[in-house]
Write a structure and sequence with these properties.
The protein has a 15-stranded antiparallel sheet that branches. The longest helix is centred in the N-terminal third of the chain and has 24 residues. Helix content is 13%, strand content 56%. The chain is globular and about 50 Å long. The protein contains 3 helices and 15 strands.
Length: 272
């Protein structure tokens, strides 16, 4: 009887270990941000070869609970001004919940771009040593599409990979260094890349200049890797995004940091 009980306990412990192994392998140590961080940006569009301020963006990270699990809630919102809305309206809200171990839990994007509005959702779980996702997309016609996929590796959405990548240690990286990242949204998975292009000094809209790491988010397009976003993050432990260059379907846009609050560490990348 004792042997059977011991075997049952060992089997249960083994199943629990297997159940948690996928989430454990998707975990990452957070060294870059705390709950309470608030980053604000000014948005600019290229209008007839002139850069025009058209709106603002905010990224706010807070402590929350997702299905009973302590987590970080990161919300990124973009909002064009009423004047800019006459030419092109953009109302995007990206929401991501990740565990305190940075493993993704939930993602939602609600995007109004011009007359087009769509929703993407991804629900993550980690059964039996794998990564399981439920994907949902509502397209611009109001049609809903759902699918489920299970992977043996970790996958991320646009916001959870950003939260994780802020804790990357770039020491030893050389120009051209590539980090491969599988990205999912409401209906697909792509093998994207993060490419490092060295350091540079960038002036933000808060009036300060920062020593930054230059990185590019790349996606496959017609057999080649296409740059989607080029961003500059402070060359310190915070890795605060100071500037983003976005190559969109309807043209080019930029975002410049206008203020920051609640940063985790001292901003050592500021250039006097």
């Amino acid at each position: 009887m004792k042997n059977k009980l011991l075997a049952l306990l060992l089997a249960t412990a083994g199943l629990l270990a297997i159940h948690g192994s996928a989430q454990a392998q998707c975990s990452f140590r957070n060294t870059a941000f705390n709950a309470g961080e608030n980053l604000a940006y000014n948005l600019y569009f290229n209008w007839k070869f002139v850069w025009v301020k058209v709106g603002f963006a905010n990224m706010i990270t807070s402590d929350h609970s997702y299905q009973g699990k302590p987590s970080y809630r990161c919300a990124l919102t973009t909002h064009t001004s009423r004047k800019a809305d006459k030419f092109f309206m953009m109302r995007d809200t990206l929401l991501s919940y990740v565990g305190h171990d940075l493993a993704p839990l939930y993602y939602r994007k609600g995007a109004r771009e011009g007359k087009r509005y769509y929703i993407d959702e991804v629900f993550y779980s980690y059964p039996q040593g794998k990564t399981h996702i439920r994907q949902h997309r509502m397209n611009a016609h109001g049609e809903h599409f759902r699918q489920e996929n299970t992977y043996s590796d970790c996958v991320y959405d646009m916001l959870s990979i950003f939260m994780r990548s802020r804790s990357f240690n770039p020491e030893g990286w050389k120009k051209g260094h590539v980090v491969k990242i599988p990205i999912v949204d409401g209906d697909s998975r792509i093998n994207a890349q993060l490419r490092y292009s060295g350091t540079t000094v960038v002036k933000a809209d808060d009036g300060h200049r920062y020593r930054c790491l230059q990185l590019s988010y790349m996606e496959p397009d017609k057999g080649k890797m296409k740059e989607i976003v080029r961003f500059y993050v402070t060359d310190d432990d915070n890795h605060i995004p100071v500037r983003l260059d976005m190559f969109l379907r309807f043209g080019s846009a930029k975002a410049f940091l206008s203020s920051m609050k609640g940063t985790r560490s001292q901003i050592k990348a500021m250039v006097k």
